[in-house]
Task: structure prediction
Amino acid sequence: MFPTHGKTPPLSPVLLAGLLARPLSPRLLQPALDAIFAILNRSHPGLFERLSCLNETVFLIDPIDLPLVFILDADPEHPRLTAAREDADRAVATIRGPLLTLIDLLEGRIDGDAMFFSRTLSIEGDTEAVVALRNAVDDAGIDVKRDLLDFLGPFAMPARHAFGLGERLYSRLNDDLEFLKDCALAPQSRIPKAPEA
Amino acid sequence: MTALELVCPAGTPAALKAAVSSGADAVYLGFRDATNARNFPGLNFSRDELQQGIDHAHDNGCKIFLAINTFPTAGDSTAWHQAVDDGASLGVDAVILADIGMLDYASRKHPDLRRHLSVQASASNPEAIRFYQDAFDVKRVVLPRVLSVAEIAALNKEIDVETEVFVFGGLCVMAEGRCALSSYATGQSPNTNGVCSPACAVRYDEDENGRMVSKLGDFTINAFEADEAAGYPTLCKGRFVANGEASYLFEDPVSLNAASILPDLAKAGVTGLKIEGRQRGKAYIAKVVTSFRRAVDSMDDGAVVETDLTEITEGQRKTAGAYQKTWR
Result:
């Protein structure tokens, strides 16, 4: 959760959205989060079965570009995902990184070890629990967009259009932010370097 | 020249499917217990998952090799024997074994089950390899990562079994099957428990200077600056202070990539090209297997097509390891 842990998040639409939503309570997200998590659980019933080797299954998922954290209770029998403002004392481990990286990891599109090697992701606490969670979600074949559309059945078409529109808007905003970043950094790059002694 | 077979890792059914669809000729994997050298939490296959994996692989012309490559607990080989029996009854194409007792058991109980000698047996000379062939009818030997290409070529001329070599992934300190560093620090070893530096003994903390400090058991083994690429938390890749200077005393955190010398390995008589990484995600498997499939297939055209895989490697650096012993 920014800026608590000193990690600089990437300049992205997610960061802007996080800054704008800062005054709002994460609890407002909870109904949508419950619905999405229920659909994911229904689509992947054995999702947390690989965590049955663990005694403690509460994880803190910390998107560094949002002013909130997610508390994941990965109990295979009663899993739950909660949005909160503060860290959870009872979490066995913390996984920290940009939101889109965390979603890519959830969907198995990127390799967790590679993200760790590059320092994009960081972990704290019980490493064994994190490894077990990573292996569980990597095997599950989660695709958030596909899973939601599958659930909607006959209502999937308008939702597909809405997703498409959202993705185009995100892409456009991302390009604009890249442009802004280049503009902001350009004066810095024009400063002549002092001759070496 | 022998046709090269791409032998790829899988730690989950999803990774197995990724390996098969990316062009693996064979997939190696293990059961969810200490009978294999990647006994990590949440990793590996149940019996049902293995059956489904075998069906999927065989439907797509791919073989399955079952790694049972740890050394049984003294006085209790039950789980290891059961693994061999189950592998045979489920229809794996080969078992990868390291222990002499297990090789004896498999050759007596399942004489038709193809046997490969694991890298954990560390057989690196003609006499050792001929012993395994004569005694247990081993068909293939996975060579330890200590030999140069010239040494592999010379070895292949003296033996009559297939050889398999690692071409990509994490490296060990060249004492495979005999390393006791993890056991010393944590009480668990890759040789008997199937875990090197078990995750339950690993901790990452941030120090007051913003560095990520990795600890294994009671030992602090590294401290990475904020912008420094990290490696696995193994003692062999720890950074220690000696003579007032912190450095990698045993081995750098760096990954093997032998893509550029595939034609040399083929000329040296190698049969199997092994990719390390059963503990890695399916995205890694798909990317590396696709890259090596393309590299192997491009050899017929005279030039190897190489893909830059640096960003997914340990330490974000690559080496040709012992294949090109530049330190000699």
Summary: Helices of chain A lie at 13-20, 30-43, 99-106, 112-117, 127-140, 144-152, 156-190. The two ends of chain A are 43 Å apart (CA to CA). Strands of chain A lie at 58-63, 69-73, 80-84, 93-97, 122-125.
